[in-house]
Design goal:
726 residues; alpha+beta; Arc Repressor Mutant, subunit A; OB fold (Dihydrolipoamide Acetyltransferase, E2P); 5 domains; seven-stranded mixed beta sheet; 28% strand
């Protein structure tokens, strides 16, 4: 009897919460108006006596929560402290609490886990905001206006004697399991990793109902986990048949009439590509020739994807939908079908290709004496890997060594000037894996940028910057208001920079925050000074975290990290849709076209930025999975590691020799009770005073490798000698 009463009480509470949501939604239509309970009952269509009794109970509940006030007996209005209803996008953290990002509002609104209702990660939600007992503004979800997604990846837990199951989703930001009745299991077995479609979520119910629409396989299997990552981020790994068919029927011939009418013929100029040794899609090529006046003509030639991918076609719609190629550890999920990315558009050696080019006349001091932009046709004479080009730079020998050395010399001048003008030189290495024929990781190495990488980087940066300036500035070098797609990077958050300055000051490093140029100079000096020091990893990590994220926009606010006022992505249209947009707009302006609708392009910018973030998250997940898979073979072994992140529940340790990162939970540290200090990025023992701080070095043991969760667990063996000395 007691259990039944408790059930009735919970059910009634859910009902009152739902009625309260309706009341707030109704009253917010005119938040300054005073309503009596009858007006409210009629307004939310709760008219019979029983319903009106529940309305009164819900009103009392809202009053107790300080969401409404009773200025006169029996009359109610929205609490004057309440800011009203707002619409935004919800973003969950690991604890189940959330923040809602609202356009035009600087601070995100905090939503406690008990007030998120049925919202899920990324949903567009209607919230009511309030200042609860003098604290910072908080909010509650009133209604989910638009689902970000209705398909999720998870593992089926089937309950045989109940004839139903639940899909436990992979992402901790999905704050509920999905109920699956037996009729919707569709041949999935207990423990299978699946894609589930959420079909409904009734008011007051804890779990949504769903249907299994695809069985991915068993957790931990290589293909299962890679396909899970793609499905989790909604990234397709196959093209629709119609898109493939359209790509297959593209005319790939070089039409001499097209060349004569619309292109500069540069097939007679020495041209070559420099790319990773395993690359198949060659976006860019460089040409070089000495001019009679002693200057150098350097051509930056980019695959003319816009010639083949035309607006209004299903090929273009698919490319826009994807917006970017995704580079996982064992495969590429391309933006364009392979026939285009690896064949028709790829600037392969000994083949004539249509290109879009930025051609510069440079003197020996790498100063630009003249420039030209337009469509071209080229013939690549040679394909170099970065290693081959680097060999010529170091030995000064080999075919085309003189040309590569000239480009290297000019690139170094451009790089030095860029850094002098305020560019920041973050140059972190990227982890890569050696895989066997079964895609098993047999080794780890780091991609390190050398002179040959910097050579290509500088000329691509030059082309991107100069195309952007060409479109955006008139002859007097003042803005002309032309709509364009920019790559922007906002100034760092001043509060983060001040925190970084104060923190590095404890290690004896100084930073000047007087202006943008001095900040950049200080950061470059700091990054140089910490090289090889015990605190290098920690300070480099914090410096990176003080930076904003680069995005696409029609507003040319500049690129802080590169030190450019105008910057765009122009040089990789095979793998980035924004570059394709840039090509089309450049040609539009070259043809004398007027500036198109800005808002239309701003929407494209937002979409491309969002897809870039998804791709980066998917790539990061695939690296984590492969690192865990690699470390499975090293369970029980001891490594030296560096603390790479600190939180209130534990800290992460990264192994420098292979990039693998594992978690050490505070609850597993048995020698003391530890507390987190956000200002010092450390946890401290209450009794012993032991400190574990970002950047500290430890000896750890690998104790667990969870492939499905992509997580490693470590335990501390000892602090290293470096730490013990401190």
């Amino acid at each position: 009897m007691q259990k039944k009463s408790k059930y009735i009480s919970q059910k009634n509470d859910h009902k009152l919460q739902e009625i309260g949501r309706l009341i707030l939604k109704f009253m917010n239509t005119d938040s300054a108006k005073i309503y009596n309970y009858k007006q409210i009952s009629d307004g939310i269509d709760q008219k019979n006596p029983r319903q009106r009794e529940q309305v009164i109970q819900a009103l009392h509940k809202l009053q107790a929560e300080e969401r409404i006030t009773e200025p006169e007996k029996g009359k109610y209005m929205i609490n004057l402290k309440i800011e009203g209803t707002l619409t935004g996008t919800i973003d969950f953290n690991q604890a189940g609490n959330a923040y809602v990002r609202i356009d035009g509002v600087e601070d995100d609104v905090f939503i406690h886990s008990k007030n998120v209702k049925d919202a899920l990660q990324g949903d567009k939600v209607l919230i009511v905001t309030y200042n609860f007992k003098g604290k910072k503004m908080e909010g509650s979800v009133l209604e989910v206006l638009e689902r970000k997604r209705d398909q999720f990846v998870g593992t089926l837990q089937f309950i045989p004697h109940k004839e139903f199951g639940f899909v436990v989703c992979d992402k901790k930001t999905i704050n509920t399991d999905i109920f699956i009745p037996k009729s919707n299991i569709n041949d999935a077995k207990d423990g299978d990793k699946v894609i589930v479609k959420m079909t409904e979520w009734r008011a007051g119910e804890k779990n949504p109902t769903g249907e299994i629409i695809k069985i991915l396989g068993k957790p931990g299997d290589h293909d299962t986990e890679i396909h899970s990552i793609l499905a989790e981020y909604g990234l397709p790994y196959e093209f629709p048949d119609g898109v493939e068919a359209e790509a297959d029927h593209i005319d790939r011939t070089i039409d001499e009439e097209e060349v004569k009418a619309n292109r500069r013929d540069m097939r007679g100029v020495l041209t070559f590509t420099i790319d990773p040794k395993d690359a198949k899609d060659f976006d860019d090529a460089l040409s070089i020739q000495k001019l009679p006046n002693g200057n150098w003509e350097i051509g930056v030639h980019i695959a003319d994807v816009s010639h083949y991918v035309v607006p209004g076609t299903i090929l273009d719609e698919e490319a826009y939908s994807r917006a970017t190629s995704v580079y996982l550890v064992d495969r590429v999920v391309p933006m364009l079908p392979e026939v285009l990315s690896n064949d028709v558009c790829s600037l392969r050696p000994n083949e004539d290709k249509y290109t879009f080019s930025a051609v510069f006349e440079l003197n020996d001091d790498a100063e630009i004496m003249a420039q030209w932009f337009g469509r071209t046709v080229i013939h690549s004479d040679r394909r170099f890997s970065y290693e081959e080009a680097q060999e010529r730079i170091e030995t000064r020998e080999g075919d085309l060594a003189e040309e590569i050395l000239t480009l290297d010399r000019l690139a170094k001048i451009l790089r030095e000037k860029r850094i002098r003008d305020g560019a920041i030189t973050f140059d972190r290495s990227e982890v890569r894996f050696n895989l066997d024929e079964n895609d098993e990781p047999i080794g780890v190495y780091f991609k390190i940028s050398k002179d040959s990488n910097h050579l290509i980087e500088e000329f691509m940066l030059l082309a991107n910057r100069k195309v952007s300036e060409f479109i955006s500035l008139n002859e007097k070098r003042t803005p002309n208001g032309n709509t364009f797609i920019y790559r922007i990077h906002d100034d760092p958050d001043p509060a983060k920079l001040e925190a970084l300055r104060d923190f590095v000051g404890t290690f004896g490093y100084k930073m000047s925050l007087d202006n943008a140029k001095k900040i950049a100079q200080s950061l470059n000096a700091l990054l140089k000074d910490v090289k090889g020091k015990g605190e290098e990893n920690m300070i480099e990590t914090l410096a990176m975290r003080s930076m904003s994220k680069a995005i696409y926009s029609t507003e040319p606010i500049g690129h802080y990290g590169l030190g450019f006022e105008y910057y765009s992505h122009f040089t990789s249209p095979i793998r980035r849709y924004p570059d394709l947009i840039a090509h089309r707009l450049l040609q539009h302006y070259l043809d004398g076209g007027k500036s198109p609708n800005k808002q239309e392009y701003e929407e494209k910018c937002k979409h491309c930025s969002a897809m870039e973030r998804l791709a980066a998250d998917a790539e990061r997940d695939s690296i984590k999975f492969m690192q865990v898979k690699f470390m499975e073979k090293h369970l029980g072994e001891t490594f030296e590691g560096v603390i790479s992140g600190v939180a209130d529940f534990g800290f992460w340790v990264q192994i420098p020799e292979n990039g693998a990162e594992g978690l050490i939970k505070l609850r597993d540290l048995m020698d003391d009770s530890y507390q987190y200090n956000a200002q010092t990025h450390a946890v401290y023992g209450a009794r012993t005073g032991n400190r574990y701080q970002l950047g500290d070095t430890l000896k750890i043991q690998v104790v667990k490798a969870n492939l499905a969760a992509k997580q490693l667990d470590f335990k501390i063996v000892s602090k290293t000698a470096f730490q013990e000395e401190i």
